[in-house]
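quick q for whoever's on today - can somebody do inverse folding on this one?? i tried earlier but teh output was garbage lol. tokens:
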């Protein structure tokens, strides 16, 4: 006996929705969900295992509910004068964002976002009963201060979600836009900086705007640059009052002792953990140069992935690459696909497969 979802007394506002659905397939070259494709260094792994071995002996007790050591480590990693009080963490930044919407959104409230953007933002909004309001971007996926302010004035959201650099386009967001949005609302402004470590290192992050802005939240994750996606650790920096709000909605002991121990051990090796970031940026820059040569114009990217256009049949290309044991991402943006910068060998294999595509490939085939 198998019932279907529609047989269940599910919330009316969840009827007909589809869950997050990036395909998970075991293939040789996975360039579809923007992971760091370099495994963590073995010496760091050994240290993490040691920390886990110690922590596991204490799992008869609940973990530190305030994850104090981890918050200190994260504050130290971020710098910018932040202390443990400014930090909050959860099982991935997705959970951080969910807690933010549980505390500041919910039924009767709304969150403004700017598609195309991270699909989980609207999915988490739906899960928490927060109305998702879709703003529009300017030319080239950018958001000017005027555009942000106009959308805020027109839709008066309770929260504004930005993503910088933006997933799936790679587009950076200026601090002027964030500051103008903050001044235009009495609500919460969230800047999802999941890819911050891949942006040019000399440029300031939204962390520099936190001072004096108690409604601004900058979210980060160890899932991308830090090569820790499987461990599930996301975090935010904000005024300490924000953590007080999230304590009201989080489940007690939401971060297991094992997660805390693993993350603290990894953060003690942040230099080694981030060692491949420059290499990944070089592969991203290579994609930005090589894809256009094959007839696929690429959007500027400050992250570890590239959104490219000019694809005659994105779905067919996706399937053809799968036959080569390569998975990338089809986001249903017409004539576009997104690819994560991999290792040099993975990026080479992807570019070679792209160069070998027939009529399903580039609309304007160079030399064809
Ligand atoms: C990958 C990604 C995250 C990461 O989520 P985690 O739950 O921390 O793994 C967050 N925001 C954006 C925009 C992402 O692309």
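ok took a stab at it. sequence:
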């Amino acid at each position: 006996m198998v019932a279907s979802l529609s047989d269940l007394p599910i919330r009316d506002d969840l009827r007909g929705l589809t869950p997050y659905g990036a395909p998970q397939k075991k293939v040789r070259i996975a360039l579809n969900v923007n992971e760091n494709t370099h495994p963590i260094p073995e010496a760091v792994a050994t240290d993490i295992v040691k920390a886990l071995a110690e922590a596991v002996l204490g799992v008869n007790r609940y973990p530190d509910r305030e994850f104090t050591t981890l918050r200190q480590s994260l504050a130290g990693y971020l710098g910018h004068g932040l202390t443990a009080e400014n930090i909050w963490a959860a099982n991935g930044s997705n959970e951080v964002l969910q807690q933010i919407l549980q505390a500041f959104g919910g039924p009767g409230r709304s969150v403004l976002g700017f598609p195309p953007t991270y699909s989980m933002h609207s999915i988490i909004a739906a899960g928490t009963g927060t109305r998702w309001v879709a703003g529009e971007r300017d030319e080239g996926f950018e958001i000017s201060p005027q555009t942000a302010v106009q959308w805020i004035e027109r839709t008066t959201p309770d929260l504004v979600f930005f993503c910088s650099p933006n997933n799936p386009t790679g587009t950076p967001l200026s601090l002027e836009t964030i500051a103008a949005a903050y001044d235009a609302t009495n609500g919460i402004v969230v800047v999802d900086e999941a890819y911050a470590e891949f942006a040019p290192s000399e440029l300031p992050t939204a962390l520099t705007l936190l001072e004096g802005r108690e409604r601004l939240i900058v979210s980060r994750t160890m899932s991308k640059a830090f090569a820790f996606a499987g461990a599930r650790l996301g975090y935010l920096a904000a005024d300490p009052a924000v953590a007080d709000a999230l304590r009201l909605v989080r489940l007690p002991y939401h971060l297991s002792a094992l997660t805390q121990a693993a993350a603290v051990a990894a953060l003690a090796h942040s230099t080694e953990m981030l060692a491949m970031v420059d290499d990944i940026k070089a592969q991203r820059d290579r994609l930005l140069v090589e894809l256009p040569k094959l007839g696929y114009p690429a959007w500027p990217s400050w992250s570890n992935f590239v959104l490219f256009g000019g694809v005659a049949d994105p779905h067919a290309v996706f399937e053809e690459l799968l036959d080569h044991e390569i998975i990338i991402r089809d986001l249903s943006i017409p004539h576009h696909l997104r690819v994560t910068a991999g290792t040099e060998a993975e990026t080479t294999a992807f570019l070679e497969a792209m160069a070998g595509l027939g009529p399903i490939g580039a609309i304007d085939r160079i030399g064809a």
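fwiw The first helix runs from residue 42 to 56. also The chain has twelve helices and eleven strands. so keep that in mind when u check it
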